[in-house]
Amino acid sequence: MNATFAAALKKLCPPPASGGGGRAVSNNQVTDPNVLSNQYFKNVAAGEVMFTSDQTLTSRDDTKAMVDDNAANPVAWMARFAAAMVKMGGVEVLTGNAGEVRKVCFATNTAS
């Protein structure tokens, strides 16, 4: 997280020792929710995200390259996003015994 963003959050949500500790609400939606954009990736690249899971995307070279590309190329990001949505629309829901709950998310369970 960049220092300017961290300072803004600390001002919004001061620790109890500084008079804070009450119910503070921070709007993590910093753009218009009705406009599709690559702003999320711009925020991640700038270190302006609140969650470790988001900032972790910049901790490895391969995922950082994806973040940087998505932040810098809104038209390419939009095309990839649209293609992903179309692909997800083709995923059929498995019912009954047709599928399995994976014990490890990236591998099918071994037959027993």
UniProtKB/TrEMBL annotation:
Query: Where does this protein have coiled-coil stretches?
Result: none
Question: Keywords assigned by UniProt?
Answer: Calcium, Heme, Hydrogen peroxide, Iron, Metal-binding, Oxidoreductase, Peroxidase
**Limits of the Plant heme peroxidase family profile domain:** 1-109
- Asked if the keyword Iron belongs to this entry, the reply reads yes
Q: Does the keyword Heme apply?
A: yes
One GO BP annotation is:
hydrogen peroxide catabolic process
Gene Ontology MF terms in the entry: heme binding; lactoperoxidase activity; metal ion binding
Q: What InterPro entries does the entry give?
A: Haem_peroxidase, Haem_peroxidase_sf, Peroxidase_pln
Q: Where does the source fall among the domains of life?
A: Eukaryota
List, separated by semicolons, the cofactors it needs.
Answer: heme b; Ca(2+)
Catalysed reaction(s) here are: 2 a phenolic donor + H2O2 = 2 a phenolic radical donor + 2 H2O
Matching SUPFAM superfamilies = Heme-dependent peroxidases (SSF48113)
- PANTHER family, per database record: PEROXIDASE, PTHR31517
Provide the family line.
Belongs to the peroxidase family.
- The protein here is known as Plant heme peroxidase family profile domain-containing protein
Q: Which organism is it from?
A: Oryza sativa subsp. indica (Rice)
Q: What is the lineage of its organism?
A: Eukaryota, Viridiplantae, Streptophyta, Embryophyta, Tracheophyta
